Amino acid sequence: MPHIALPPEHIGIRGAMAFRPETARPLNDLVEILLAGPSTLSKGERELIATYVSSRNCTHFCASIHGAIAAAHLGGDEALVKQVKTDFTQADISLKLKALLVIAGKVQKDGKLVTAADVEAARNLEASDLEIHDTVLIAAAFCMYNRYVDGLGTVQPDDEALYRERGRMVAHNGYVHTSKEYLGKA
Known about the structure:
The protein has 186 residues and is mostly helical. It is 70% helix and 0% strand. The chain is built from eleven helices and no strands. It is globular and about 50 Å long. The two termini are 30 Å apart.
């Protein structure tokens, strides 16, 4: 049960954003840039970073929806998403992405835990400074998004089909367009 009167027709972060659309716009713009904008990391890889951080933060809504979006970008590979959540070191992903997930995991705990050696390891696997930057920002932003969702006690259903359907929609249309019902014109 939400801690404040959130619109009941919207679950997770969507309820919080619908409650205050003027803050929803910049939050959606940021996630659109980080996860769906131009990048040398694929949309699926960036969604896996968001999913991993959200999973470590135990935020069911964000881990589920971003996992579903990641799977949609990765040809429906839900098993890969689950493996990244549970033990990315064993997942069938690039060594570069594994190095970036090490950095993301440290940011999730405390940004000061990221070391020069962590960054050098990612660079040695051909991660660019922009990819390292965006990994840190995705991890930091998702800590904020996760705390927003959990701090308001938003509704976070267990229905995997709901997340799968919404995930395909966001993967196809992007964040801002998909959120037009509470953002106004997108």
